[in-house]
Design goal:
It is built from 3 helices and 11 strands, in the order ββββαβββββββαα. The protein is α+β, with helices and mostly antiparallel strands. It has an 8-stranded antiparallel beta barrel. A hairpin with a 2-residue loop joins strand 9 and strand 10. The longest helix is centred in the last third of the chain and has 23 residues.
Length: about 250
């Protein structure tokens, strides 16, 4: 889906893995399956499920402590960079666009500001290209891989439908970013909080590298090293996600 994305839309390809739980809607709890190993769920299977990208505050602190210790004890040859971000997301209904090919109703425009400076960091319409849910029966969490397009758009007019405040600790290592975020949702910018979530996301840091390596994957005119670069990038991404799930 990375190579076959609708290129006429432009935008940035985002590949991310979120840690959380696959929930059986009917049972109201974590999905149960008669399998003993990590399992990728068929997106077309008749399962009434949802993915909850959330964890307890205790688990969130555990990851924070672990990542901070890695930063302190890191080897100088491959540093772990850290930044603490305070972001404000305002969501607006997206204007209808027949050329978008998103095939989804309820698209939204997200305007992200630095809460300290009020500067607009990003104004995008996010188009989901696909998801894969991974059930991990031997661990306390599952994970989901999502591929999205983030298409730059003009700042919308009017008032936002809802607002999210993000207190985010970002750790960057080589080609990957780990975001630990406390997300507070408000029905309006100055309204009391409706929901507080604790999220962990792993993302490929450089979309341009992702696309460049994907384009050479089956190119017989380049070296084997170049052809295998995409697979190696995805393998490292998946291994990092698995490690994060194991240490919940």
């Amino acid at each position: 889906m990375i190579v076959t994305r609708p290129e006429h839309l432009g935008g940035v390809v985002e590949v991310e893995a979120k840690i959380g739980l696959i929930v059986d809607r009917a049972a109201g709890g974590r999905l149960k399956l008669p399998v003993l190993v990590e399992t990728v769920l068929d997106p077309n299977a008749p399962l009434d499920i949802r993915f909850e990208s959330n964890m307890s505050s205790t688990q969130h602190r555990h990851y924070n402590t672990l990542l901070n210790s890695l930063k302190t004890d890191q080897p100088t040859a491959s540093p772990l960079d850290y930044s603490h971000l305070y972001l404000l997301d305002n969501f607006f209904p997206a204007p209808s666009d027949p050329a978008s090919d998103s095939g989804r109703g309820g698209d939204k425009v997200r305007v992200t500001r630095d809460e300290k400076t009020s500067q607009v960091v990003q104004c995008v319409k996010k188009i989901r290209l696909g998801d894969l849910n991974v059930w991990s029966p031997h661990h306390k969490a599952d994970w989901r891989v999502s591929v999205n397009l983030e298409v730059p758009v003009q700042h919308p007019l009017g008032s936002p439908s809802y607002t999210r405040r993000k207190d985010r600790m970002r750790y960057t290592h080589e080609e990957f970013v780990i975001d630990l975020t406390q997300v507070t949702t408000h029905s309006a910018p100055n309204a009391p909080p409706q929901q507080i979530l604790h999220e962990l996301e792993l993302e490929i840091a450089r979309p341009e590298l992702l696309l460049a390596t994907a384009a050479k994957r089956n190119d017989v005119t380049v070296s084997e090293h170049e052809r295998s670069a995409f697979d190696e990038l995805i393998r490292a991404f998946v291994n990092n996600a698995r490690i994060l799930v194991k240490i919940v």
